[in-house]
Design brief:
Blueprint (H helix, E strand, L loop, with lengths): L3 H4 L10 E2 L2 E2 L12 H11 L4 E7 L8 H11 L4 E4 L10 H12 L4 H13 L6 E4 L2 H7 L1 H11 L3 E3 L9 H9 L3 E6 L5 H8 L6 E4 L15 H9 L6 E4 L5 H7 L5 E4 L1 H7 L7 H13 L2
Parallel strand pairs: 3-4, 3-10, 4-5, 5-6, 6-7, 7-8, 8-9, 9-10
Antiparallel strand pairs: 1-2
Length: 295
């Protein structure tokens, strides 16, 4: 796959709302001061910085490690935690996340296990927003309404589904909004004006901007056209804008922080944790996130 726009291609699942055979407008976005996601962005803005959004693969390296890593990442300065639900064909992800997905599946991870982990994290005092990042097939198989309700009950704040195009997302969007969840949409540098419009009219929580074409993975350099890219989207929405794909070092954070409200770091963190002795995982994770934050 050479272009991430393929990763958010037409999936063939779901149906869009219609009125008299014509597409209906999504429900209006209503700010929610009780939202943990909105509160996290507000705190970061008050501190004149972007919110940091680290990613961990659920059930990796071993089954119980997520429950040790998430608190350590928060202690290091993570504002919002993205938990990857492993899938056999993670088409928007590069080799690092593909590898961790495969290991997590071998460990026996399922969406139901993810819900159990979320409940335990909340029961153990985790207050930061928790997002599930996963693919549409497991969500569809679980049942859209049932999965959204189960996520809300477990303490999940939102979903990121990179292979679900906005035009076909309305059933899941309805289920998410009905349960107080955010459904997060992605925009790529190659997204057409029509695709951007389709995302913005449905967007809630924040908008995830992919930094470059391609799949996830740490990069040594980011695109020189980020300012123009983000300005194009900012003209269309007042929601927080988050950048992801390729963020791997403090220098990248410093480069993009003036432009964005949030920054995702995934593959670089997983690469740093790969092969670390089990008893060292929380410390290494905390220190890596502290390095990204510059603390």
């Amino acid at each position: 796959m050479s272009n991430v726009e393929i990763g958010i291609r037409e999936s063939g699942f779901g149906t869009s709302r219609t009125i008299d055979g014509k597409p209906a407008a999504p429900p209006p976005r209503i700010p929610n001061p009780e939202s943990r996601i909105e509160q996290a962005f507000a705190r970061a803005k008050a501190e004149n910085r972007a919110a940091l959004i680290p990613y961990v693969t659920l059930g990796w390296p071993e089954l119980g490690d997520t429950e040790r890593l998430v608190p350590a990442i928060i202690a290091g300065g993570g504002d919002i935690i993205e938990i990857g639900l492993p899938f056999s064909d993670p088409i928007a992800d590069g080799p690092t996340i593909q590898r961790t997905n495969q290991k997590a599946l071998e460990n026996g991870v399922t969406p139901t296990y993810g819900l159990e982990v979320a409940r335990r994290l909340r029961a153990n005092g985790v207050e930061a927003p928790l997002l599930f990042m996963g693919y549409y097939n497991p969500v569809f198989s679980y049942g859209l309404t049932e999965f959204a309700a189960a996520c809300a009950d477990a303490g999940i704040d939102g979903l990121i589904i990179p292979d679900l195009p906005p035009e076909e997302s309305d059933p899941l969007l309805d289920a998410c909004l009905a349960n107080g969840l955010n459904l997060i949409y992605l925009i790529a540098p190659t997204s057409t004006p029509e695709r951007v419009e389709a995302v913005i009219e449905r967007a809630n929580g924040f908008v995830y901007l992919i930094s470059l074409t391609g799949v996830t993975g740490a990069r040594s350099e980011l695109s020189a056209n980020l300012a123009e890219y983000v300005a194009r989207v900012r003209r269309e929405t007042d929601l927080p804008l988050v950048i992801g794909f390729g963020i791997s070092a403090r220098a990248h954070v410093e480069q993009v922080e003036p432009l964005f409200d949030g920054i995702v770091c995934a593959s670089a963190l997983l690469n740093r944790l790969d092969g670390v002795p089990s008893d060292e995982l929380p410390r290494v994770a905390r220190e890596f996130v502290e390095g990204l934050r510059g603390t």
